[in-house]
Amino acid sequence: MLNPLITAKRILIAAAQAPDSASLMRLIVERIRTALKVDVCSLYVMDEQGELVLTATLGLSEESIGTTRMAPGQGLVGTIAQRQHPLNLDNAEHHPRFRYFEQTGEEDFQGFLGVPIIHLGQTLGVLVVQVQETRRFTEEEEAFLITMAAHMAGSLAGNLKKATRPLVTDDHVPVLRFQGIKGAPGIQIATAWLVKDDVRLDDIPERDGTSIDYEQQRIAEAMADTRDELDTGLDQLGSNSNDTLNSLLDVYKLLLQSPELKQAIAEEIQLGVSASTALKRAMLSQIAVFEAMDDPYLKARAEDLRVLGVRVYRHLHEELNERMQPENPVILVGREINISHFTRIDHDKLVGIVSLEGSALSHTAVLANALGIPAVVGIGDEDLSSLDKTEIIIDGYRGLVIGHPPVALLNEFQRMARQEKALQADLSHLKSLPAESKDGQRVRLYTNTGLLADISPGLERGAEGIGLYRSEIPFMAHNTFPTEEEQVRIYRGVLSAYSPKPVVMRTLDIGGDKALPYFPIKEQNPFLGWRGVRFTLDYRNILLDQIRAMLIANVDNDNLQLMIPMLSREDELERFHAIVDEAVAQLKEEGYPVSKPPVGIMVEVPAVLWLLPRLRDTIDFVSIGSNDLTQYLLAVDRNNPKVASLYSHLHPAVISALRGLVRECTRLNLPVSICGEMATDPVAVVLLLGMGVRTLSLSAFHLPRIKWLIRYLHISDCVSLLDRAQNCRTEQDLRDMINDHIRELGLGALIQ
Ligand code: PEP
Ligand code: MG
Asked: Quick check: 148 and 10 in contact, CB under 8 A?
């Protein structure tokens, strides 16, 4: 029986090891041809000019690779690409769209099956198989090829797009453009610093060992750790639980336990080399044995061993997590840039972020916003290694990264970066001026923080308080849960820096995409799972310690307000209050002069929209967490680049829900503010002011721009723009309408 999943999986594993895209493309057609037992398998890839180029083939003439090309609609392949629909023909030549490409030698093949490779709605290419006999392919074969194409599209989109690009030569280095998602605004030109989380077995450096016993012990521990990792089903390729894939993990485990491998490593160590050198040598010699085999199934074991070898190596080398110490400021570039990277580099050396994964609302983006550095995320499966140590441009307004930029482009971006700096400098005079609209309405501008590093930017830019202190960030930067004393030190630093201005501290909000390195939570649906207050109410002691620490830190400052993340039930609020009361009582008993601070909630779970009258008497304020509220209202994962285009805080349902919420808060006489990223979008700010929101909390970077905007707005205009918003057909129409207004006010520089 044909198993597309296992073939796809093997291709993906090999993809990580393929030296260049030509070998990878060849490997794809080889694997598919073997699996389907056909005479020809060919891959046509859409190039940057929109033409389909024969990029790899087994069965057609090799000379036709790179030279056979067709426009969409032309020939059978072009027709498949244009209609985005397969063609399954017993005799290709009889089809009216058939066109003969002489150099291919395809006249020998009658049976033809071609399927499009589609990614995010776009045709990336066409996969074709052919046989000599006159026959239609079976349904099973067709289904196999369709499934393979879907896997290729999902996992290798970046490799495919790149496959038709010209090769880099010494005298001509082509410009590399990578389109991602806007993570954090700003333009930056600096050296790229590749986060080397990807290791290749062949590149492991060879070293002498310390002592035989020591190296034996190291390798034994690393192999045991790898086995544990496999036992927990932690699959590097992020697979879901599935019988076929689990059996693949079993294969890994078997290989890991193989006496031959253990023996080979032990023998190398006896020769006096380090554990990682022994691992590399033993693995490579076993790999060579498998690679020499004829049986394709056994051959594929070689790839499994490569993956496995790297896994064991990671367990041997904690220094892969060492501190980064560039001489000059750099842009961090990697598959995923997370809090651990932020903590491993000096803040003044970090000026931008580029990541293959993530989306506008992922925590990479939130942190970049907090630090005021541009970020481009969600680029997809691209190879960014050639950018390492070269000067790159990142444009966080458009989600664009440019490698090897020509001088003219560099000059243009330098000009834009200078303009941006000048705007920031121009706006610095606003620091001491109030955020007051033209018609005299006062708006409070607070800041969102979490890192100690972003405390002073907030103050320097005139924040009137902290509207959201993300207390999980210091937790994420630790190796263990911080003690109460340690927390007191951290919170005191924040509260005293702002005192007497108010500081809203949110209690630990982990879960979802915010994992503690020392306390992983594995769930099927993390965003619907053990998040925020749900987690801390179950780990009552952690919440109690945290609240105690906040209260102690507040003793001489008296500016603390507590905020509950991810509340969805009335009883959660009751239980939270009980813990605060207990903390206050305990501390009083211990002699601390503490009192209960105001307690507010985040509106992130839509259920809260209907609970407010019931919660009213036991809360002091609400803060709109528009990042999560949008995600849950629209059922769109805020971190998933595949649905990033569906995530929008201007969606009519979001606007209508917020309007209702603000109205309800006014009716209940409940202070309402917003702390989600929506408050950084000038268009959204106009709408929020129109709704009646008068307190915004946002990253320090955006604060002067939003103040500038507010000082030019008439609230009466905001109200009428909000009313007109209902008649806008699309979110883009709405954005255009408000942007026009912003431009008319002379604030075009705010719209990038
Ligand atoms: C939000 O959900 O809008 C929010 C501010 O919280 P976070 O982004 O930390 O989840
Ligand atoms: Mg949230």
From this structure: no
Ligand 1: which atom is nearest the Cα of residue 631?
2
Please name the residue that has the structure tokens 């002067």: 704
- For the segment(s) 465-606, the CATH number from 3.40.1280.10, 3.20.20.60, 3.40.50.2000, 1.10.10.10 is 3.20.20.60
pLDDT at position 296, please?
64
How far is residue 223 CA from its own chain's centroid? 30
Exposed/middle/buried for 480, CB within 10 Å: 0-12, 13-18, 19+?
Answer: exposed
Q: Residue 699 CA: which ligand is closest?
A: 1
Superfamily assignment of 433-440+621-752 in CATH? Phosphoenolpyruvate-binding domains (3.20.20.60)
Query: Which residue lies with its CA nearest to atom 3 of ligand 1?
Result: 625
Whether residue 244 is predicted with pLDDT greater than 50 in this model: the reply is no
Q: Give alpha helix (H) positions in 317-443.
A: 339-343, 363-371, 407-427
Domain range summary for the chain, segments of one domain joined by +? 4-163, 176-197+322-425, 201-316, 433-440+621-752, 465-606
Q: What residue owns the CA closest to ligand 1's atom 9?
A: 470
| pLDDT above 70: residue 238 | no
| Position in ligand 1 atom list of the atom nearest CA 468 | 5
CA of 357: how far to CAs of 416, 433, 475, 527, in Å? 26, 39, 23, 17
For residue 63, how far is its CA from the centre of ligand 1 (angstroms)? 55
pLDDT on residue 247: 56
Give dist(CA 610, CA 664) in Å, integer. 9
Confidence of residue 622 (pLDDT cuts 50, 70, 90): very high
Task: Say how far apart CA 326 and CA 321 lie, in whole Å.
Answer: 15
Q: Is 437 helix (H, G, I), strand (E, B) or coil?
A: coil
> In this structure, what token pair is assigned to residue 191?
């050296």
User: In the block, which residue shows the tokens 């260049």?
Assistant: 20
Q: How far apart are CA 566 and CA 53, in angstroms?
A: 50
Give the closest residue (by CA) to ligand 1 atom 1.
625
Dihedral of alpha carbons 233, 234, 237, 241, sign: positive
Instruction: Write out 264-305 in H/E/C secondary structure.
Output: HHHHHHHCCECHHHHHHHHHHHHHHHHHCCCCHHHHCHHHHH
Q: Which CATH number fits domain 4-163: 3.30.450.40, 3.40.50.300, 3.40.50.2300, 3.30.420.10?
A: 3.30.450.40
Q: Which ligand is nearest to the CA of 674?
A: 1
Distance CA 131, CA 129 (A): 7
Active site residues: 363, 675
Mean pLDDT value of segment 591-597: 97
- Tokens representing 736? 């255009």
Q: Give the residue among 479, 468, 563 at the shortest CA–CA distance from 519.
A: 479
H/E stretch holding 205 reads: none
Asked if residue 633 has its Cβ within 6 Å of ligand 1, the reply is: no
| Distance of alpha carbon 395 from alpha carbon 187, whole angstroms | 5
DSSP letters, 418-433, are HHHHHHHHHHGGGGGS
For residue 513, the CA-to-ligand 1 centroid distance in Å is 11
pTM (two decimals): 0.69
**Tens-place pLDDT, residues 137-155:** 999 899 889 988 888 887 7
Q: Which residue has the tokens 């030019």?
A: 712
Residue with CA at minimum distance from ligand 1 atom 8: 627
pLDDT digits (tens, 9 = 90+) for 277-324: 999 999 998 888 887 877 666 766 777 787 788 778 878 876 665 678
Q: How many CB atoms lie within 10 A of CB 359?
A: 26
Top-tier CATH class for 201-316: mainly alpha
CA-nearest of 208, 233, 241, 38 to 133 is 38
- Closest ligand (CA of 678): 1
The yes-or-no answer to whether 433-440+621-752 and 465-606 have a common fold is yes
- Most distant pair of Cα atoms in the chain: their distance: 93
CB 132 within 8 A of CB 39: yes
Token pair of 391 as six digits: 């000067």
